[in-house]
Amino acid sequence: MNIRTAFRPLAPLALLLLAACAPAPIYKAAPGTTITAVPAQVAHTPEQYGNGSVIWGGSVVSVRNFPDHTEMEILAYPLDSSQRPQPNAQGLGRFIAVFPGYLESFNYPNGRLVTLTGQLSGSRAGTVDQAPYTYPLVTVAQSHLWTPDELRQGHPNVSFGVGVGVGIH
């Protein structure tokens, strides 16, 4: 019996253990009503998507408070199976998340990752630097600001390799 056949029965168990480390999605998508288009697609033809619900996430660009609501500009990224934004991927466009009431902008610094669920509520013309830009608007129902520990969950700190290490003391 060689080593390969000896470990073959353990492979499904190892995969199961690695999969168990990944956290479950935080929001449930409503079948048939959750829009799978990305913000850049919605921005081009917002009328096509109406008031559908979305689960989007990304990196906070800015937070602006108004008398009765707060607007958060977010650069969208693809979400993993746990709905964590993947900032190493290519951006999917920007959108504005509209929250009722006041949010303390100090708690949402630029670059923090957030995932939210909400309803599309039209679009707004604006600019990114000097370039014209159309932002989809999302009225937020729920949001989650990711902590560094949560972002590391499901990413085992294990590496495999063959080699020789040399240390100098």
TrEMBL record:
Keywords: Lipoprotein, Signal. Residues 1-24 form the signal peptide. InterPro entries: OMP_Slp (IPR004658). PROSITE patterns: PROKAR_LIPOPROTEIN (PS51257). Pfam families: Slp (PF03843). It comes from the Bacteria. PANTHER family: OUTER MEMBRANE PROTEIN SLP. This is Slp family lipoprotein. It comes from Dyella humi.
